[in-house]
Amino acid sequence: MTSTYQAPLRDMRFVIDEWLDAAAWWRDVPAWADLDAQTAQQVLEEAARFVQARIAPLNASGDSEGCRFENGEVTMPAGFRESYAEYVEAGWPTLALDAESGGQGLPQLLDVALQEMLAGANHAWLMSPGLTHGATACLAAHGCARTKREWLPKVASGEWLTTMCLTEPQAGSDLALLRTRAVPDSGNEIYRIDGTKLFITGGTHDLTDNIVHLVLARLPDAPAGTKGLSLFVVPAWLESDGVRNRNGVHCEGIEKKMGLKASPTCTLRFEHAQGWLVGEKHRGLACLFVMMNAARLQVAMQGVGHAHSAWQRASSYAQERVQMRAASAPQYVDHDPQRPAPIAFHPAMRRILMELRAIVEGERAIGYWIAHWLDIAAHHADPAARHEAQRLASLLTPVAKAFFTANGFAAASNALQVFGGYGYIHEYGIEQTLRDSRVSMLYEGTNEIQAIDLLIRKVLADEGAALNVLLDHVRAEARLCAAEAGGVRLEALAVDVERVTQRIAQRHAKDTEAAVRVADDYLALIGWLLLAFAWARTWRLASSAPRVATGDVFYTQKCETARFFFDYPLAAFAHRLALVEAGCVAPLPHHVVETI
Q1: Which of 11, 43, 5, 9 is nearest to 121 (CA)?
Q2: H-helix segments, 30-172
Q3: Contact 205, 264 (CB under 8 A)
C-alpha cells in the first residue's frame, strides 16, 4: 500500500485568508498592493500541482535507491536532477527573494507554505535547496563585490546550490572548538582554507554544476572562542579565462544514515581552497545567523510537513482497514453489527487521529503566523512596528523549531501505531516518515539548544519584554473568545506562564543551573500555549454566524477539533508546568556522570 501526498490547500487558505487575513495587510505594502487572496491561492495551487506531480513520487524511490558515492563524487537518485531543474525553471527558489536579489518578492508567508508542502512530500529532496533563501540573504547582506557579482545571482536563482559548513569532528554544537584555518593569500582578497567539516548536507552532488560553500574558519590573528570565527564563501569550482578548475574542496565520503537516504550528508576536506571573506573578520557568526534564522523556521515547518503526511497516511489507512466489530463503533454509525467496521471508528484510533489533526492544524497556524511577523518586520512602514515584529518572531522561532519537530517525530510514531504491524513494513511508507522526521530535532541547533536560547537569551535576558508582547496577543484573543470556546482557559494559561516565568527568574538569580534544567519543559509549555492560542482563534472564527450559515462541514470540523484540543491534548500544558515548577526546586543528581 502507498499513500499519495495531497497538499492541505483548504486549511492553508483558511489560515492565510481568515486566521491571519494577510491580504488586508499586504495592501499596505507598495510592492504587494496588487497581491490579493485569489492570487495567493493560485500560487499555492500551482505549487501543490508541482509538488504532488514531480516531487512526491520520488520520495519512496529515493529512499530505496539512496545516494551513490564513488571516486569523490555523489550521484543522486533517479529523477532528482531532472525535477530540481524543473523547480528552478519554474522560479520556485526565488518566490520570496527580494527583486534586488533576482527574486519575485512575494511574502515569506507563501514561501513557508511551499516549504511545508516540500517537506511533507519528500523531505530528502527538500534538503538540497533548503538553504537557498538563507544563503542568498547572507551573501546579499555581507558578501564582497566579487561574491555579489559572480556567485550571488546563481545562488539566488537556484542555478547553483549552497552548503553551510560549521560542524567538525571535535566540535558539534560548540563552535568555539572549530579548528579550520583561513590564511590570507599574498595580500589580495583571497584566503586559503584548510580543515575538515562533517555532516554537510549536499556537500557534493550532481544536481547543479557548482556548489557554493559557506565555511566558518579562523584567521591567524583570531581570538579564542566563537568571537574568533570568520565566514568565507568557497565555491567548489572556479572559473578563470573561460576555464573551470576544481577548488581545493574534496568529498571524503557520505554517511550511512537512519533516514533521509536520498540526501547526501558529506565529510568535506578543504585543502588550500580559495575563499573570500563574508562580512567582517572575526564576525562570522553574526553573518551566519542571517542564514540560520531563516533555516530554523523552515525546519519547524518540516515538523508540520511530517505530521501532516503521517496524519494523512494514518487517516487513509484507518478508513480502509476493516477489522473490528460494529459493537465497538459509535452508536451514530449506521452499520450492520454482524460485519467488521473500519478501524477509524475505534475510540483508540479516533483519539490518535484527532490528536494528529489538532497538532498539525494548530502548528500550521502558528508557523504561518511567525512568517507573517517576518513579513511585517521587513516591510512595515513604522520602524517601531518592524522592531516589535522582529522581536516577536525571534522569540517564537526557537519554540517552533523545537516544538514542531518533536511533535513531527511523535506524530509519525503515533501514526505508525494506527497501521499496527503493517506500519513496520517498508511498503506502507509510514516507517520512512518516522525515520526521516527524527533528524529535524538535531540539526540547525538541537532542540535542547533551542530551549536554552528561548529561556536564557530571549526571555530572561530582556526581563520578559518579548514574552509580554506574546502574552498581550494571547490575552487579546482570550477577550475576544467566548468562555465556552476557550477564552477562559486561554487567559488562565497566560497567567500560569507569567507566574512560572517570574519564579524561574527568581530562582535563576540564586541557582544558574535552574534555567537550564527547566528549559526543555519551559519551551514545550510555550508551545502548548501557542497551540491553545491557535485553536481559540480558530474556534472563534469557525463558530461565527456567517461561517456557520454556509453549512460548510470544514467549519464544523474545525469547531469539533478545537473542542477536542481543549478537552484532551491541552492537558500536556499542566504536565509541563508541573515539571518546570519541580525543576525550579529540585537539583539534578550528579551520579549519572560517573563511570560505570
Answers
A1: 5
A2: 37-50, 58-65, 80-89, 108-127, 132-142, 145-146, 152-157
A3: yes
pLDDT digits (tens, 9 = 90+) for 272-305: 999 999 999 999 988 887 777 778 899 999 999 9
Domain residue limits at 56: 9-136
CATH at 266 = 2.40.110.20
- Together in a domain, 75 and 194: no
Question: Of 341, 214, 206, which Cα lies nearest the Cα of 268?
Answer: 214
The number of domains in the chain is 3
Residues 457 and 516 in one domain: yes
Tell me the average pLDDT across 345-361. Answer: 95
Average per-residue pLDDT in the chain? 93
The catalytic residues are 444
| 456 class by beta-carbon count within 10 Å (0-12 exposed, 13-18 middle, 19+ buried) | middle
What per-residue confidence (pLDDT) applies to 485?
A: 75
Residue 341 CA to residue 349 CA, distance in Å, equals 12
Of 114, 94, 113, nearest to 104 by C-alpha is: 94
CA 62, CA 426: separation in Å to the nearest integer? 13
Q: Residue 336 has what pLDDT?
A: 65
Residue 361 and residue 19 in contact, taking contact as beta carbons nearer than 8 Å: no
